[in-house]
Design a protein that fits this description.
The chain has a single domain, classed as Rossmann fold (3-Layer(aba) Sandwich). Helix content is about 40%, strand content about 10%. The protein is globular, with a radius of gyration of 18 Å.
């Protein structure tokens, strides 16, 4: 699946940016080992396509620009990969990446709205979809054409509040709402299917009136095309992109560990990963 607006040049740019974000996320983890690195490596391609692919309306000079699209990161702990993106785009200085989790830094292990580019508090899981629904309703009442994107993890779908929001969005036909599911198959205590089996996801969303798409979450052309379709005008119903991803993407020790959510990488391992060109696989 290739979108006509994704040229070869743009595809290469997005891949290069994704690889750079992967490297910078590991560097942040090396300096601040309390960050959740495995969860932050799986959604990189989705975020890169949104921010560098022209699919999200934003203004780094005015983070609260009224005409912006809203992006809510509900799985806040798993979005440290957003920090390099926001710095690169000019939301704050690149030098701030050196101070993540330090006492005098606004970049914490769990993000909050004090960070330019973040919309909401992102600590307790399960609340992002409900907030996104509220924003989507408000924008529709203002007759705004802007979209609301909300990213959740598959483990987060264990939360009942998420399904209340899914039901609400379907009932109110919130066609300006897009949910991104980082379906990386693992949660804090092991494989998602063994902790709480909510799969398959597609028929459940469809039962609540959602337009559903499923892609390989690391395939940039597929992710870009699906996100472009989600953002386009279409049926009066909310949309969900289920991205099948790999938790700890590009780090073999994390990829094979069912408890990688709580794993911390050592300095030597990170140095070898970055220096050895292991990285994400194209």
């Amino acid at each position: 699946m290739v979108h006509p607006n994704l040229s070869t040049e743009k595809h290469l740019l997005l891949r290069k940016k994704a690889d750079w974000v992967w490297t910078e996320t590991l560097r942040i983890h090396a300096r601040s080992p309390e960050t959740r690195v495995a969860s932050s490596l799986s959604p990189i391609e989705m975020l890169v396509c949104l921010y560098y692919g022209g699919l999200l309306a934003f203004d780094p000079r005015n983070p609260r620009w009224e005409a912006r699209d809203r992006l809510i990161i509900s799985k806040g702990h798993g979005s440290i990969c957003m920090y390099p993106i926001l710095a690169d785009l000019g939301y704050f200085a690149m030098s701030e990446l050196e101070r993540v989790c330090k006492l005098d830094s606004f970049l914490g292990g769990i993000p909050d709205p004090v960070i330019p580019g973040y919309e909401t508090v992102n600590g307790s899981l399960g609340h992002g979809p409900g907030v996104a629904c509220g924003m989507a309703v408000a924008l529709k009442r203002k007759q705004s054409r802007n979209k609301v994107f909300v990213m959740v993890g598959d483990g987060e779908l264990d939360e009942g509040a998420v399904w209340e929001a899914i039901m609400f969005a379907g009932h109110h036909r919130l066609d300006n709402l897009v949910m991104l599911v980082d379906s990386n198959a693992k949660c804090m205590l092991g494989h998602s299917r063994e902790i709480m089996n909510v799969f398959p996801l597609e028929p459940k969303f469809e039962a609540f009136g959602w337009l559903t798409m499923t892609v390989d979450g690391h395939d940039i052309p597929a992710v870009y095309a699906a996100l472009a379709e989600c953002a386009a005008s279409g049926p009066a119903q909310p949309r969900v992109l289920i991205a099948n991803t790999v938790k700890g993407r590009g780090v073999p020790s994390l990829e094979r560990d069912p408890l990688c959510h709580i794993r911390t990488l050592g300095q030597q391992e990170i140095a070898e990963l970055i220096g050895g060109g292991c990285g994400p696989r194209v």
